Design the sequence.
């Protein structure tokens, strides 16, 4: 039973021990045995090394192994698995690099090693093996992310610099365990001395192998973390697949799970990190099946592992730069990818590149994302500001709707508008309602300059643009309704878009010349080019919500199957 003053970390480790470290039973061993190879190793011999990719799953049959992290002169022992334990981590599913090393501790050890590719197949095909192994991998990674002693990759950066935070954010969104170490502090100074780093070399990354990287690009960071996997084997100039999914937010990830589980050869690209916008949401409370909410990062990470398990291939960061078509060929779509010399040729493509919410250019805004700055005004956000003064920024219909909705529960709504006339950008009926509402005050020619508070937003500073006068308002919430920009500028003109740049699909594109000569009508999520689909926030008319994106991602695969069975 948990005592009142129990250390929450210790309690967490105790509670999760059984899931993280199950033993392999006779039945599971008999299923794994034909896929792997037995080896006998002596004391001190390495089983694998930090930085190594495509690790095999190691089941210990006799003896003991020691898993450790090496940091400069010191070694941190992470575990000493024994008979019927298995050594492994999600890196095996993702094909990323090992974060730690392992060697034989006992005089001799007999192990069974199952190669990563065989393991991935086994997790889908062998009943009773996949679930405990994948659950153990996920739990081990969660424990490692929480472990204060484990360093993983180390980022050394000057305090509060954008570049340092970007590396930190990139590694966090890609679920790579790491530490952000301030250069100014004693540990930062010691590391800088050791690796001969000056402030000009920062941010710097210390790899699991101990090698320092000075001012690395995100691609270099991805390479060190083992995230960047070459799509080609050798020097091929083309890579072929059934379905290329561009964008790994909720829509792309859901599509990847369904496509790979149905046996389609699936490649998923993302320009930054899987998770998309949902990855930056600390708690999604309206996604069904999670009554107490789930962090967007956890939700999408699980989906990503599920897609890996079914055999989808991921490449991040891989920005799609251009899409072109080859009529009459089986792999009719061609994708050019940043940093990849080969062309990705696919029978079908799903565009799920989402949208970027325009961010307010106010000092301190980043600190309060989701703890005071919101991009939707639903009942959930409404609850957070009942009885308070809230701020809505924007002059379009979404800002007007948010202001009207929030006025029902808030003491006062300040509608901050850059221009001088709401009617120029908002529907007439709505602007009249907003103007007539007793507790909405419209602040024309005004911008938000600064946001301050503790853990949550407390105050904003507003500037009247004509007079330059500034005032401070106490508020728990700013609703940013200044528009979203679809990520579609890389697409060719053949992919029809609406006036705001969102991709049209289904009946909206039926009159397009490409469909006029087709034997079948476009599927509901098919674009103006047959075989090219769009799902999620990037699609014109879609509901900009996580569950809607997931639903569309799944539904797009039915369309892909139909298009493969009956090309236009
Ligand atoms: C802070 C925040 C909180 C939210 N909270 C909620 C909530 O509580 N509940 C809810 O239902 N919804 C919420 N949403 C909305 C929800 O997250 C989105 O509706 C959902 O993520 C849309 O999914 P998507 O897959 O269509 O696109 P996105 O999530 O936008 O993902 C698109 C992906 O495509 C990638 N990409 C873009 N261009 C390229 C390219 N050229 N090549 C390769 N990759 C590319 C991006 O890197 C990104 O990963 C929130 C959004 C934000 C920003």
Sequence:
């Amino acid at each position: 039973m948990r005592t009142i003053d129990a250390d929450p970390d210790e309690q967490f480790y105790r509670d999760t021990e059984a899931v993280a470290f199950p033993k392999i039973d006779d039945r599971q061993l008999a299923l794994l045995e034909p896929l792997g190879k037995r080896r006998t190793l002596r004391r001190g011999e390495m089983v694998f090394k930090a930085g190594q990719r495509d690790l095999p799953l190691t089941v210990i049959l006799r003896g003991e192994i020691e898993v450790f992290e090496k940091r400069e002169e010191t070694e941190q022992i992470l575990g000493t698995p024994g008979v019927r334990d298995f050594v492994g981590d999600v890196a095996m599913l993702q094909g990323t690099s090992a974060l730690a090393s392992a060697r034989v501790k006992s005089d001799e050890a007999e192990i069974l090693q199952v190669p990563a590719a065989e393991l991935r197949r086994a997790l889908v095909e062998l009943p009773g093996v996949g679930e405990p192994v994948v659950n153990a991998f996920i739990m081990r990674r969660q424990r490692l992310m929480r472990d204060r002693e484990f360093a993983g990759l180390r980022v050394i950066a000057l305090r509060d610099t954008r570049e340092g935070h970007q590396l930190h954010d990139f590694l966090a969104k890609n679920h790579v365990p790491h530490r952000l170490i301030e250069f100014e502090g004693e540990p930062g100074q010691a590391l800088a001395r050791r690796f001969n780093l000056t402030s000009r070399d920062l941010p710097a990354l210390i790899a699991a192998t101990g090698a320092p990287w000075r001012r690395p690009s995100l691609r270099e960071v991805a390479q060190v973390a083992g995230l960047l996997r070459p799509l080609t084997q050798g020097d091929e100039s083309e890579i072929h697949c059934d379905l290329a999914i561009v964008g790994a937010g909720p829509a792309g990830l859901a599509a990847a799970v369904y496509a790979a589980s149905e046996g389609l050869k699936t490649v998923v690209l993302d320009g930054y990190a899987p998770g998309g916008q949902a990855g930056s949401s600390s708690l999604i409370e309206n996604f069904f099946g999670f009554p107490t909410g789930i962090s967007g990062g956890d939700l999408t990470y699980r989906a990503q592992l599920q897609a890996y398990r079914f055999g989808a291939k991921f490449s991040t960061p891989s920005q799609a730069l251009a899409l072109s078509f080859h009529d009459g060929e089986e792999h009719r779509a061609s994708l050019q990818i940043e940093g990849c010399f080969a062309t990705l040729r696919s029978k079908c493509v799903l565009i799920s590149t989402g949208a970027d919410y325009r961010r307010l250019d106010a000092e301190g805004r980043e600190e309060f994302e989701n703890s005071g700055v919101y991009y939707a005004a639903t009942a959930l956000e409404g609850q957070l500001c009942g009885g308070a003064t809230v701020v809505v920024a924007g002059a379009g219909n979404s800002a007007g709707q948010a202001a009207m909705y929030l006025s029902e529960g808030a003491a006062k709504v300040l509608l901050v508008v850059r221009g001088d006339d709401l009617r120029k950008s908002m529907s007439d009926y709505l602007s009249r309602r907003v103007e007539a509402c007793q507790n909405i005050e419209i602040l024309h020619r005004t911008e938000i300059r600064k946001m301050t508070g503790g853990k949550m937003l407390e105050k904003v500073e507003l500037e009247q643009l004509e007079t330059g006068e500034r005032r401070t308002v106490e508020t728990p919430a700013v609703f940013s309704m200044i528009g979203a920009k679809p990520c579609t500028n890389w697409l060719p003109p053949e992919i029809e878009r609406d006036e705001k740049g969102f991709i049209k699909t289904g009946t909206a594109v039926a009159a397009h010349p490409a469909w006029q000569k087709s034997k079948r009508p476009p599927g509901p999520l098919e674009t103006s080019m047959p075989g090219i689909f769009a799902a999620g926030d990037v699609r014109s008319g879609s509901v900009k919500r996580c569950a809607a994106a997931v639903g569309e991602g799944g539904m797009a695969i039915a369309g892909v199957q139909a298009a493969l069975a009956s090309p236009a």
Remarks:
- Residues 546-565 form the longest helix (20 residues).
- The chain has four domains: 8-146, 153-224, 238-356+485-565, 365-482.
- The radius of gyration is 26 Å.
